[in-house]
Design brief:
The chain is α/β, with parallel strands linked by helices. The protein has helices at 14-32, 37-44, 48-61, 122-138, 176-184, 193-203, 263-267, 269-279, 288-296, 300-324, 339-351, 371-413, and strands at residues 35-36, 64-69, 79-83, 87-94, 98-105, 110-117, 144-152, 155-156, 163-165, 188-192, 213-218, 222-228, 231-233, 328-332, 361-364. A five-stranded mixed sheet has the order 6-5-4-7-10, with helices on both faces. Strands 13-12-11-14-15 form a five-stranded mixed sheet, sandwiched between helices. A three-stranded antiparallel sheet has the order 1-3-2. Strand 14, helix 11 and strand 15 (361-364) form a beta-alpha-beta unit. The longest helix is centred in the last third of the chain and has 43 residues, at 371-413.
Length: 414
């Protein structure tokens, strides 16, 4: 039997069903682009009246729009529904020394993007980000902006939307949400990079039928987003999934969290660059993308460095598989651009010796290095849509209460 905490329980209601049905229809409209109300009813199993009611609400809010009529053999021509192409989201993927800002449509397509260098001082970094976002907004005056989604290299409190653990960034508990909302006048939603990437996979329908999954983001550090029984696990104060800060070796380098030999110190992109510099001490400073280019060109030291990174990635994933037992393990990051070279090494470490039970399926994310950016957009879209629906339902409930009170008062006076 599933455990129910009576101190923190939310009873089901008609409103809960409406929000679920709304989410189902919005996902179907996004998937089929375009689709009629009749087909929405058939595919969802909802009554035509329910589909019409929710569709009208989504039209009124601007999430969808009506397209042309579809010709049929007989009967009335159905009008097709599509996502509103005029709506867009500003997305920001923050890294320790740079940020990627972009405008993303409701289908997850990146309309425009740019990479900027940011200060280690959070207030100064916000100035750079705001300036870039305003240029992006002004260059697309025909787009209506839903809000701003932020993907962060650290754990974010669901209650305060502030960073609670980000050793690689070093910003402390700076209120990024408040700063951006004041400057941009838009709703801001912040999420851990791995969680946002996982939300993207769920929102855009690439994990259909999967109830247990882990998504690993590999960049300057390593983050993990966890899906258990269909629910994204955040843990107490949003700190769940920090597998990157679990020590994997006693002889590894010092980690930003203060421990020695953490998984990310031996398996991150930064670790791969360090391996190369150890093999080629005379090499000048370069990035992980430079290392990838050297490997593609056949540089043996670059290949060795990436292979060593892949070995430690596999060892860490084995630890995660023992602890969590996912059906699927997704890997996001620039390294997926050479996935055919990395995957066999990672999988060998993951599966040898064989894991108990069914071995998790290992696969890259479709976006590679853009997973975090689309994840930021998906997080904003999901939360903003749910919040808008909640407000409408709450207003409707309050209105019915007022109308009910007025009727009672009138009856009493009669």
């Amino acid at each position: 039997m599933r455990r129910i905490d009576l101190k923190d329980v939310q009873l089901g209601s008609n409103n809960t069903g409406r929000m679920i049905n709304r989410d189902i229809l919005l996902r179907l409209i996004r998937t089929f682009q375009s689709i009629s109300r009749v087909d929405l009813s058939r595919l969802s199993g909802l009554q035509p009246s329910t589909v019409s009611q929710i569709s009208d609400q989504l039209l009124k809010e601007g999430w969808i729009c009506e397209g042309p009529y579809r010709r049929t053999v007989r009967g009335r021509y159905p009008q097709m529904l599509t996502l509103n192409g005029a709506l867009a989201v500003l997305a920001v993927d923050i890294h320790p020394v740079q940020a990627v800002v972009a405008m993303v449509d409701l289908n997850g397509r990146i309309i425009s993007s740019s990479t900027i260098l940011i200060s280690t001082n959070p207030a100064r970094a916000v100035e750079f980000i705001v300036s870039s976002l305003k240029r992006l907004r002004d260059s697309h005056p025909n787009k209506s902006l839903v809000g701003i989604g932020i993907s962060m290299p650290g754990r974010v409190s669901a209650k305060t939307q502030r960073l609670v653990f980000a050793p690689n960034l070093g910003w402390g508990a700076y209120d990024l949400k408040l700063g951006l909302e004041e400057e941009m006048g838009l709703t801001v939603e912040i999420e851990n990079a791995a969680n946002s990437s996982l939300i993207s996979e769920l929102w855009f329908g690439r994990l259909e039928g999967v109830r247990n999954a882990a998504l690993i983001t590999v960049s300057e550090g390593i983050g993990a987003g966890l899906l258990a029984d269909g629910i994204v696990i955040r843990g107490h104060d949003g700190a769940a999934g920090e597998f990157g800060h679990i020590p994997l070796t006693s002889s590894g380098p010092l980690c930003g969290c203060g421990q020695t030999g953490c998984w990310e110190t031996v398996a991150s992109n930064s670790a791969a660059v360090r391996y190369y510099s150890e093999l080629v001490p005379t090499s000048s400073a370069f990035t992980f993308h430079d290392l990838l280019n050297l490997a593609v060109e056949g540089d043996p030291n670059a290949v060795k460095s990436l292979e060593k990174q892949a070995v430690f990635l596999g060892k860490g994933l084995r630890m995660l598989a023992y602890a969590f037992s996912p059906e699927v393990v997704l890997v996001a990051g620039a390294l997926v651009s050479i996935w055919d070279k990395m995957a066999p090494i990672i999988e060998k470490e993951l599966t040898n010796p064989p894991l108990p039970g069914t071995t998790p399926r290992l696969q890259p994310t479709y976006e590679g290095g853009l997973a975090r950016l689309r994840g930021a957009a998906a997080t904003l879209i999901q939360r903003h849509s749910d919040l808008h629906c909640s407000k409408l339902i709450s207003a409707s409930h309050e209105r019915r209460q007022v109308e009910g009170d007025a009727t009672i008062s009138f009856s009493a006076q009669s």
